[in-house]
Design a protein that fits this description.
The structure is a homodimer. With about 350 residues, the first copy, chain A, is mostly helical. Chain A contains 18 helices and 2 strands.
Chain lengths: ~350, ~350
């Protein structure tokens, strides 16, 4: 079960009751997540490389955090019915579509502990597989009958593409400023969490003020999630994250710990420049990685990146104020602790 | 003006009155096509490589045949209003999105007489530019208020992706059968013409039987168009077509003339195998191309490919029977002669 998987990647050394609370959260939406997984499993399978590229990624599962957001938001209102299930599948397909295209764009090699679809089936198949999943997602959103959600999904996609465009434009440059950095993480991660919360809230029939509160919650949750993603790129265990260590940096992407370190210690600049110049198809030298990692520690950049993620998680929890007290609100508060505690 | 451009690529040696009829057609929708072009020109411009990739393709213009289909179908009913204009822009954006992704998939180098966007701005930018134009197209279809058209656009995209998948699967193989070949050209070309006709007919408020007739017309028109495209790949003048000669073959795609020739002369098989084995980044040797071209002539494959295109154009015209007589129907009959007469 997806949220159980999520719990498994959280650190033991989090607040003592995190594990218990995650189990409660997990129990509360267990049937809904099973329903989601059964529905996702119905996606057409055939022998074409395009279809296999898409299923290669989907079959590796992932954390299903965005569908869990849809389920949790829905359950604050009505039950998790067929329309909500369609929307949960849609958000996972949208996410997967962007991953397939991102891996082509970044020449990504590992994802969820396995070689990327593009390495197995080729770039061409991944481009088409991403297109296919995008269309499959949009069909389900349209079918849900919530037409406003489709318009918002288009806006979300616009923001995601714009963020990818900024990231591409700044690839290999170390002059990305904070403003651009936060625009990128909002576009590439927070916006889809925002949409997932809105989708669930809409399907659940929540009033406008609660829908807006949940969108703000999703924005902060997504940002916290991405900040920890940045952290794990340089400080995570690849056996847990399923990604190659330093892959963001290797792909020329500025991450928050690095941005902080560059502000605090000018001597890191030349080190990073060397790193960014390394050919994308060669592994980064271990010694160079170790030196960067040391700088991130001595400048306090890793610590402060995690601290900011924690603040954004707290901001997410604060957004829950307008919601009625109950298991739904408690579950969302628990979910907000996941990004900060996760190790993969 | 777009349809004037279309007229310019038609051969002088067509039926004597083709030029006159095309001028009439062109005059009849001139204001509508100008309205379409003004609207298309409003698409956001910025300095990012993603945006420039998209505009690089759009600025080269193309024949605007699909928007012309929307305009012609609309004018059979009501006038070409803002909703129809949005749909005309949408179909051109959908078409452009697929071209951007296709050029990444096929490593295409020339399009509309210029280097492809991916050669200038990179594959990554073209993937994102295609994603962006796809979303821009779908936003406009949603905004038109014809919700059925959005569902049909998703089906159209599904068919296009499935056709690209078959083509990718059979890349470099010479055993593509007729059934698969016709499925590919229906998916990659005819389906979007079909949708363009339906979009125009819907915006124009035509009754169901006329909408269905126009969809059938679009299917045949698109097939005729693709058959001539196949022909021009091996027999066209690159200065007129704007594409590298033999590029379909070089990309490992089976075309109709080749399929016919292989059925008729087994000796061509080894020649084609050699051609398909040529590295994609090296130009095809002139002598080899000349030998294939000779075989296509001696087997009558080029002649019969054009003859089939003409039959499909005639089929398109026959589909117009349920429509009331008048300038709209005449214009569509003229449009059906364009694929067969075109040289670029």
């Amino acid at each position: 079960m997806a949220v159980a998987r999520l719990g498994a990647v959280c650190r033991e050394r989090g607040p003592r009751d995190v594990a218990t609370r995650l189990r409660d959260l997990s129990d509360w939406i267990a049937d809904d997540m099973t329903g989601f997984e059964v529905e996702l499993e119905k996606l057409v399978r055939d022998e074409s490389v395009v279809n296999r590229s898409a299923h290669h990624l989907l079959d590796l599962g992932g954390k299903h955090l965005r569908p869990a957001c849809v389920a949790l938001a829905t359950k604050l209102g009505s039950d998790f019915g067929p329309a909500a299930r369609d929307l949960a599948v849609a958000v996972e397909l949208l996410h997967s579509a962007t991953l397939l295209h991102d891996d082509v764009i970044d020449l990504g090699e590992r994802r969820r502990g396995r070689p990327t679809a593009r390495l197995i089936y080729g770039n061409a198949a991944s481009v088409l597989a991403g297109d296919w999943l995008l269309v499959e997602a949009l069909k389900r959103i349209r079918r849900s009958g919530h037409h406003g959600l489709l318009a918002r999904a288009f806006e979300t996609l616009d923001e995601m593409i714009a963020a990818e465009a900024i990231q591409l434009e700044n690839r290999g440059r170390i002059n990305l400023n904070r403003e651009d950095y936060f625009r990128v993480i909002d576009g590439k991660t927070a916006t889809l969490f925002r949409w997932a919360m809105l989708a669930g809230a809409t399907a659940g029939g929540l009033p406008a003020d609660q829908r807006a509160a949940l969108e703000r919650y999703g924005t902060h949750l997504g940002a916290a999630f991405q900040l920890v993603d940045d952290l794990l790129d340089v400080a995570g265990d690849p056996r847990v994250t399923g990604k190659t260590a330093f892959s963001d940096l290797h792909e020329g992407k500025m991450t928050y710990p690095l941005l902080l370190a560059l502000e605090r210690d000018v001597s890191i600049r030349r080190l990073v420049e060397r790193l960014l110049r390394m050919p994308p198809d060669e592994p980064l030298p271990l010694r160079l990685r170790a030196r960067v990692h040391r700088k991130l520690l001595t400048t306090g950049s890793l610590r402060d990146c995690r601290a900011l993620a924690r603040r954004r998680a707290d901001d997410a929890i604060a957004c829950l104020a307008p919601l009625p007290d109950g298991p739904g609100r408690t579950a969302l508060a628990t979910l907000a602790t996941v990004p900060v505690e996760r190790e993969g």
